[in-house]
Specification:
20% of the residues lie in helices and 31% in strands. The chain has 362 residues and is of the alpha+beta class. Helix 5 (270-285) packs parallel to helix 6. The structure holds 3-(2-carboxyethyl)benzoic acid (3EB). Residues 151, 191-193, 223, 235, 237, 254-255, 257, 259, 339, 346 line the site of 3-(2-carboxyethyl)benzoic acid.
């Protein structure tokens, strides 16, 4: 599609209900935009751009855009040419610290960067370098609380010296959090760690001045307590973070897979893994107490991101999701490797919770 972008099409495509924008002043929200709409993506009185995440051959024009831009070297699988626009209803300031491009608005900070390999550097050293920078930035900037981190690393299932690259990644990340005195059952962000094509460790993240609430899944052993069989240092992430910014509650859901306890279920069965993953996501949503929400209630302002190891599983993934989700809930499908070799897929999400419920009195 090469239709010219009309002025105003950017705001029109945000689908923000007037009712909501009248009540709430979200410091951060995600919109999936057609790549073509990006040309019209400029800050207005009502909307500012925190950053943009592209996929595939999205132009790495990060140097020109005023906001952080990161392109993930992953194919999107269902032909939608979309990108993630991280937006704010508050004015945004841009900066750079230790090579991290960032945007902040008094409540939250969005950052992104790509760390290229240095010669002879191990995956754990590079990861440690990346996380030390992030933790330095959040401490120095006052946006002390990491909310959500997305990690994309090459050859995630590759092995060297008896350890998989993902295990080495976990070593470096764990060390950085430990050095920063993180309390693992209170301070850990939600996360995803996905294998993606090119060289370079690509990370984007959200941090906030106010702490979110770390949420775990009662069906799963917390990842930071996984037993040693999965690696010398456990994965440092929470299952979700619940935040409240500008009066709006959001749930940032980590990459979620077909793991119960600490074991992979349904190896070699993509359909089975998909259903188990949805049960896990629902279990996390059930932890929200009075704000709990059913998967089929996620609406147009939420989003799920599905990573498939094999593109031939797109059909079954789409079918099962269509049977489970409300049709208005946006879903994007990407080809990416999952950190455990026996996992075929993983699903993450952003859930906006402050939908006004009639009679419930928010
Ligand atoms: C799991 O539950 C699946 O290391 O940051 C999911 C989300 C997974 C994040 C990470 C790993 C990570 O263990 C893998």
């Amino acid at each position: 599609m090469t239709a010219p972008v009309r002025k105003g099409s950017f705001e029109a495509s945000l689908a923000v209900s007037p009712q909501r924008s009248a009540r709430l002043d979200p410091a951060v929200y995600l919109a999936l935009l057609p790549v073509e709409a990006l040309g019209g993506l400029t800050n207005t009185e009502r909307v500012s751009v925190l950053g943009v995440i592209g996929f595939d051959d999205f132009p790495e024009s990060g140097a020109n855009a005023p906001y952080p831009v990161l392109t993930l070297p992953m194919s999107s699988l269902d032909g939608q040419k979309l990108c993630e626009a991280w937006l704010s209803s508050k004015p945004v300031t841009y900066g750079e610290h230790l090579g991290i491009r960032c945007a902040f608005n008094g409540e939250i900070l969005f950052g992104s960067f790509c760390l290229r390999e240095q010669e002879q550097e191990s995956v754990e050293t590079r990861t440690h370098r990346a996380y030390s920078r992030i933790l330095d930035l959040v401490r120095y900037s006052g946006y002390t609380h990491l909310v959500r981190v997305w990690n994309y690393l090459p050859r995630i299932n590759g092995e060297s010296g008896g350890l998989e690259n993902y295990q080495r990644f976990c070593l470096g990340r764990h060390q950085a959090f430990a050095e920063a005195d993180y309390v693992f059952d209170r301070d850990l962000p939600a996360a995803s760690a996905i294998g993606a094509g090119a060289e370079g460790l690509r990370i984007y993240f959200l941090a906030a001045r106010a702490p979110g609430r770390q949420i775990e899944n009662p069906r799963q052993v917390s990842a930071y307590r996984y037993p040693l069989q999965y690696g010398p240092r456990s994965p440092s992430f929470s299952r979700a973070t619940l935040t409240e910014f500008g009066g709006e509650r959001q749930l940032f859901l980590s990459g979620t897979a077909s793991i119960v306890g600490h074991e992979t279920l349904h190896p070699e069965d993509a359909g089975g893994q998909l259903l188990e993953t949805l049960i896990n996501i629902q279990a996390v949503l059930n932890e929200l107490g009075r704000s709990r929400i059913k998967l089929d209630e996620l609406g147009a302002d939420c989003m799920l991101k599905v990573y498939l190891r094999h593109r031939e599983h797109l059909g079954i993934a789409k079918k099962y999701l269509a049977e489970t989700l409300h049709p208005s809930c946006p879903v994007i499908f990407l080809q990416g490797d999952i950190c455990r070799r026996d996992l075929l897929l993983e699903i993450e999400g952003v859930v906006r919770l402050s939908r006004p419920h009639p009679g419930l009195g928010r």
